[in-house]
Amino acid sequence: MKGIILAGGTGSRLWPLTKALSKQLMPIYDKPMIYYPLSTLMTTGVREILIITTPEDLPLFKKLLSDGSQLGCIFEYAVQSEPKGLAEAFIIGKKFIGTSKVALILGDNIFYGNGLEKLLKDNYQPDGGIIYGYHVNNPKRYGVVEFDTTGKAISIVEKPDEPRSNYAIPGIYFYDNEVVAIAEKIKPSSRGELEITDVNIAYLKRERLKVSVLDKGIAWLDTGTFSSLMQASQFVQVIEERQGLKIGCIEEVAFKQGFINAKQLTKLATPLLKSGYGEYLMNLIR
């Protein structure tokens, strides 16, 4: 399986913060935002990852993450010149995906919780599409999935005025290789975008979409508003300071997944010792 991180867009809901800097490069407590979705993909076992961003931000992402070899991964980069929808990621990444299955995660989504790693790894080889449902207080902001009395998904609606459930669809999706052909056939919505909801509906109509409900032990945070951006940083700070364990630490994930060895981790940690981040990495070896 290959992975795609969609880190484009203008971030206009966060202006002036994001007027000169990509939202996905902004800090969530002690790390750039993109570290969190990147670590989620790596935890799943994905090592080949395409990062899609804007032409202006591309050099900054390359400076931050390089080619991924320092983490035992392969990072490639592509441009989404205009925000034309999440599903466009599969068209932009068609050559990168090739004949592989693919996971798409949004660059501003954070996942954390007990059992998350097992849940993600169970979906490493999807036959069709796999998405999640997460209970939220205000589902109108999201794509919403409706279930029947047996727990089977029967409809998906993007940002409904009258949601049929409180289960929003978080920004992580797993698909087989057919997703590329499906994305190429869908038409732009009234917003002029290729909606990921239409991709999911296509799989649902073919009875090849699995929807798993994330339980209360798993936190999903998006960072699209000033309030949610602050809340995400506070959440990470509280967990890290109480537990002494980091969330979204890509170097730690690479080490624990066996992508890199202790010598390589030491090389990554050394320049970071002054901030305390490097000391945390060194303690993993000790």
TrEMBL record:
Keywords: Magnesium, Metal-binding, Nucleotidyltransferase, Transferase. It holds the Pfam family NTP_transferase. The keyword Nucleotidyltransferase applies. It comes from the Bacteria. It catalyses: dTTP + alpha-D-glucose 1-phosphate + H(+) = dTDP-alpha-D-glucose + diphosphate. Residues 2-236 form the Nucleotidyl transferase domain. One of its GO terms (molecular function) is glucose-1-phosphate thymidylyltransferase activity. Gene3D superfamilies: Spore Coat Polysaccharide Biosynthesis Protein SpsA, Chain A. Its EC number is 2.7.7.24. Its cofactor is Mg(2+). InterPro entries: G1P_thy_trans_s, NTP_transferase_dom, Nucleotide-diphossugar_trans. The keyword Metal-binding applies. Catalyzes the formation of dTDP-glucose, from dTTP and glucose 1-phosphate, as well as its pyrophosphorolysis. Belongs to the glucose-1-phosphate thymidylyltransferase family. This is Glucose-1-phosphate thymidylyltransferase. It comes from Maribacter ulvicola.
